[in-house]
Design goal:
Blueprint (H helix, E strand, L loop, with lengths): L5 H9 L19 E5 L4 H11 L3 E6 L3 H15 L4 E3 L2 H6 L5 E4 L6 H10 L3 E4 L7 H13 L4 E3 L7 H11 L6 E9 L19 H5 L25 H5 L1 H16 L8 E7 L12 E7 L4 E7 L12 E7 L2 E6 L2 E6 L7 E3 L6 H12 L7 H20 L3 E2 L11 H4 L16
Parallel strand pairs: 1-2, 1-4, 2-3, 4-5, 5-6, 7-10
Antiparallel strand pairs: 7-11, 8-9, 8-15, 9-10, 11-12, 12-13, 13-14
Length: 429
């Protein structure tokens, strides 16, 4: 998005877009949905190609880096036999009445500043995970989606996966007995990013617009494409990057057990640090977060130094331990292990790609809430924020799920919101 003047930015980000296009009241059976892709270097490219396969058309490709537009546009053109219109200014996407919805795959720090204006402009939204950088931002996104009757799908593909859905149903059936412990984990090897010096932004990239609401800093290649996720200014640590997938899978079962309105913990404790590589990364490479729900514990574990399979048999997965049996869920499968002798039920699926994008397109036409609705994505993202807040404070925090605050804990409550660069204030709903 090209950098406008200070006054123009403020006007753009703080007022509703008058005259914006509303969604079509009636869709023809074969009518094609026009999308805009915003941020296409990594996950955005994959989501766009799957949306094309599901029947959509990428009309516009918006990115602040001309090199990314030049690299990714041919892939989109090949998939749909038409080149997307290249733009660098996000406002042009919102002003285009022919665009029905937007795919937002920017760094996390831009999500709220794009989703809120997009909802106001009458666009439906597919927003990459994690949803936000703060708990308050998630509440605002939910409010905007409901106020403007928008379909907002969060990129948590497990919500459109049959194996996670059926696992949640089995856990809620009571066949595992009383659930006392839930575990989720992610094992990976993160290579070093080194400690390169500050430098000059690439030609054709609008670095100031890339920073957007984040603090003004000199350009450093480590704080740009992909590696931005290792810095607090732009991301949510590995808890929000990789961990949210397994956390969301666990949340599906917790919500089936307790209801969506009662699926957040009351006490959270994080132990974390950088134990693997001495480089520029700010976020932990090892973390264990314990969430206390009152009648069971949920433990999330990160290892960024080893791909070894844990005792549960998968590098990433979820385990539900009950008094009668345990259920272990990983990629495309789940298995039940009774506490006594014998074997329990199991489930396998091929996990077809594109189901989440297809669900989004279907909901644009039907106006139903999607599988990964903004409220579900908000709650799983809140779990990530709670772990990170405990990490920042280096102590346990007590959370009130009804008010979504930390009571009288001023230090913890300060993390419910964040500061934005003055030229990029928080948009209003």
């Amino acid at each position: 998005m090209t950098s406008p003047t200070h006054e123009t930015r403020r006007k753009f980000l703080s007022v509703s877009l008058a005259g914006a296009a509303a969604h079509r009241a009636v869709w023809g059976a074969n009518e094609r949905i026009n999308l805009a892709l915003v941020g296409g270097r990594n996950q955005g490219r994959h989501v766009a190609l799957r949306a094309i396969q599901a029947g959509a058309h990428i009309k516009t490709f918006c990115d602040i880096d001309e090199a990314i537009i030049a690299k990714i546009s041919p892939d989109i053109e090949k998939a749909q036999n038409r080149k997307p219109e290249p733009v660098k200014d996000f406002r042009r996407v919102l002003d285009d009445r022919d665009i029905d919805a937007v795919i937002i795959a920017t760094p996390d720090h831009w999500h709220t500043h794009m989703v809120l204006p997009a909802c106001q402009a009458g666009k439906d939204v597919y927003i990459e995970k994690p949803l936000t950088q703060t708990i308050r931002e998630g509440q605002l996104m939910r409010e905007a989606a409901r106020k403007y009757n928008r379909v907002v799908q969060v990129g948590l593909q497990g919500r459109s996966s049959e194996h996670y859905r059926t696992a949640a149903e089995f856990v809620a059936s009571g066949k595992l007995g009383k659930i006392c412990l839930v575990k989720a984990w992610h094992c990976q090897v993160r290579q070093t990013i080194g400690n390169p010096p500050d430098g000059t932004p690439p030609a054709g990239a609008d670095y100031d617009a890339w920073l957007g609401p984040a603090p003004k800093r000199p350009f450093n290649i480590n704080r740009f494409h992909y590696n931005w996720r290792f810095f607090w200014d732009y991301g949510n640590s590995e808890l929000g990057n990789q961990g949210i997938h397994s956390i969301d899978g666990a949340m599906q079962a917790i919500q089936a057990l307790r209801g969506v309105e009662n699926c957040l913990p009351t006490r959270v404790s994080s132990s974390a640090g950088i134990y693997w590589l001495d480089d520029a990364k700010e976020v932990p490479d090892m973390q264990v977060v314990t969430y206390d729900f009152g009648d069971f514990l949920f433990v999330w574990e990160l290892r960024s130094f080893s791909r070894n399979r844990p005792l549960e048999g998968a590098r990433a997965g979820i385990a539900f331990y009950g008094t009668e049996a345990a259920l272990i869920a990983s990629a495309g499968r789940w298995d039940v292990y009774p506490n006594g002798r014998g074997t329990g039920p199991s489930f396998r699926t091929d996990r077809p790609l594109g189901a989440h994008e297809a669900n989004f397109l279907e909901c644009i036409k039907s106006r139903k809430r999607p599988n990964g609705d903004v409220e579900l994505g908000r709650l799983s993202t809140t779990m990530c924020h709670l772990g990170n807040i405990s990490h920042h404070l280096k102590r346990e925090v007590r959370f009130d799920p009804k008010t979504e605050t930390f009571g009288d804990d001023k230090a913890a409550n300060a993390y419910l919101t964040k500061q934005y660069r003055s030229s990029y204030p928080l948009p209003r709903v």
